[in-house]
Amino acid sequence: MRRLAALLFILILIAGCPQEEERYEYVIDSLSIEGREHVFSHEYIIFVKVSENSFGQGNLLALYQNGSKIGEHSLTEPLEEFIFPWSVVSVGEYQLKAVIESTNGTAVSDSKAFTVSVKPLGFYEFENDDASHPVETGVWCAQEFTLEQSVTISEVELHLRSPVPTAEGKTVSLELVRPDNGTPGNASIGIVSMPSTGLPSNAEWHSFVFDKELSAGNYWLILKRDGTAGIIAWTYANGENTNGAYCKDLTVSEDWFPIEGSFAFRIQ
């Protein structure tokens, strides 16, 4: 009898406890992104889908970047998918979040979010730091890159080393030029120099500061140096997915010749 009474008491407790309800009636079904990973890509495209019952209730679909609202769509008419264009102008980590809100900005759905890592334009995922190509007084090397839209570049980094120290007072220079029939041309956009004596024996990233507004198209980075003493080397990798590397030896010819690979560079 006691067991029956105890069991009845437990059933009464269970029946008296309401089941946990969903927090919100409306739902963000999916949040996705299409776009390239570097900072000078075309605009990223953000796709959002919401539940069918979200429409016609005076709600808004809002998109946030790192906590700040960057776009919204009215949910008056049913759409299979909503599209938000999104672009960034600096390297970093960005959290994108979609949420359904009422007209007064109150959340009426749970949010969906993800983090986007925006990286520099360039080639910098190489396996061997020691693989490099020397740049001498009469030997220049160049790397091609492509901009798909007009941008302002602020900095170019090259992965360089000096296994044999250079003489005091000598420099290494990076020149930005336009192409000429598929190779580096003579139309200089800018040149930045740094002391070559400051380069270590182990390869590291070294910054050349530019402040140039460039239109969409192809460009070349040319690495030069003065002085004959010592060695300056630009990290280099070959493979099927690398390209755009050229060099020329002025003591032999004015012509550029291709190298099967890419030099390490980062642009932002």
Plain-language structure description:
β12 and β13 form a beta hairpin. The protein contains one helix and 20 strands. With 268 residues, the chain is mainly beta. It is elongated, with a radius of gyration of 29 Å. Mean pLDDT is 86; it is low at 1-21. The strands form four sheets. Strands 8, 9, 11, 14, 16, 19 and 20 form a seven-stranded antiparallel beta sheet that branches. A six-stranded antiparallel beta sheet has the order 13-12-15-10-17-18, with no helix packed on it. A four-stranded antiparallel beta sheet has the order 4-3-6-7, with no helix packed on it. The chain is 6% helix and 53% strand.
Give the overall shape, derived from the CA principal axes: elongated
Oligomer: single chain
Low-confidence stretches: 1-21
Q: What is the number of E strands?
A: 20
- Report the average pLDDT across residues: 86
Q: With helices defined by DSSP (H or I, 4 residues minimum), what is the helix count?
A: 1
Q: Give the CA-CA distance, first to last residue.
A: 79 Å
Question: What key phrases describe this protein's structure?
Answer:
single chain; 268 residues; mainly beta; 6-stranded antiparallel sheet
List the helices and strands and how they pair.
Blueprint: H1 2-16, E1 28-34, E2 44-50, E3 60-65, E4 68-74, E5 82-86, E6 92-101, E7 112-118, E8 121-123, E9 132-135, E10 139-147, E11 151-164, E12 171-180, E13 183-195, E14 204-214, E15 217-225, E16 231-237, E17 245-249, E18 257-259, E19 262-263, E20 265-267
Antiparallel strand pairs: 1-2, 2-5, 3-4, 3-6, 6-7, 8-20, 9-16, 10-15, 10-17, 11-14, 11-16, 11-20, 12-13, 12-15, 16-19, 17-18
